[in-house]
Amino acid sequence: MVFRIAQISDTHLSEEKPFFVENFRRIGAALRVNRPDLVLNSGDISLDGAAGEADLAAARALHDALDLPIRFLPGNHDLGDSRDAPAHGEGAIDAVRRERYLRHFGADFWSFDVPGWRVLGVNAQLLGSGLEAADKQESVIAEAAATLDARALALFLHKPLFDRDRDETAITGRFVNPVPRHRLLALLAGTPPALVACGHVHQYRETQADGARHVWATSTAFVLPDARQPRYGLKEVGYVEHRLHTDGRAESRLVQVPGVPTLNIADFPGAYGPL
Fold first, then answer.
1. Distance in angstroms (rounded) separating the CA atoms of residues 44 and 47
2. Distance between the two ends of the chain, CA-based, in angstroms?
3. CB burial of residue 24 (10 Å; 0-12, 13-18, 19+)
4. Kind and range of the H or E element at 245?
């Protein structure tokens, strides 16, 4: 048996500013044909849900129309960025923004088991936030690690843990920052993940670090120009299919859907303003 997860990410959906809705619908049509066991959106579901509820509602309606099993994790555009991240316009996570997200998408951290695996979803922006829910999330992480038994662990979150090395010290907003990163890894120290999957950077990349495969999912919506963001991997629009085998093996691949263009955010100043 193989459990197939279709990871979509950084969908940036809005009814008022529907620049990236058509890409989402076309990828959604391909997913309905492919019929994965689960669709998992790893964050930045909405264009600007951190600022208001309308984009969250529109994004949820579009996902419901997929009519597929689905789980969600929040990104910085959905409920605000990490409190220790540089300001990029959407503000920081707080209890009000988080509650608004929960109303539309349900739990922002969770775990479930499939044969051979435990899948753990973490709210990256909640890490180190000081919110009461951050302690509850840590308890869920610790319990998931402590009761893993013979299963392999797949960790999903919005932001990459790091670029190449867990001991990186830069604070950029692009990766989980050093203090919350080391806290998360300490909670998982006895049972390190076999697979770490994220989004946020709008590039597809697969690397190895600390015995884990780190897979970055690209966006269904757009890529960023090189002048704004370095090339870490492949700047193409699509989604990622993860195949979790009962013996703890996993395979991941980028899926590009015919007819879905790789849009560039520089061509859409109406989304977030000129770069």
1. 7
2. 46
3. buried
4. strand 239-245
Query: From CA 204, how far away is CA 179, in angstroms rounded?
Result: 26
Element (H, E) at 100: helix 95-105
Q: At 83, phi and psi to the nearest 5?
A: -70, -20
Among residues 175, 138, 181, 179, which one has the least CA distance to residue 160? 175
| Three-state SS at 146 | helix
pLDDT at 94 over 70: yes
Give the Å distances, CA to CA, from 15 to 8, 10, 27, 47.
Answer: 19, 16, 18, 9
Indicate the length of the chain as a whole number.
275
- Note whether 95 and 131 are within 8 A (CB): yes
C-alpha 222: how far from its chain's center? 15
The pair of three-digit structure tokens given for residue 252, joined into one six-digit string: 């991941």
Q: How far is CA 143 from CA 106, 110, 111, 187, 188, in A?
A: 20, 11, 10, 9, 10
**CA distances, 172 to each of 33, 162, 206, 207, 215 (Å):** 38, 10, 21, 20, 19
Please state, in angstroms and rounded to a whole number, the distance separating the CA atoms of residues 228 and 246. Answer: 41
Exposed / middle / buried, residue 16 (Cβ in 10 Å: 0-12, 13-18, 19+): exposed
Distance between CA atoms of 156 and 269, rounded to whole angstroms?
30
Indicate the pLDDT class of residue 84, thresholds 50, 70 and 90: confident
pTM of the model: 0.97
Nearest-angstrom CA–CA distance, 241 and 30: 12
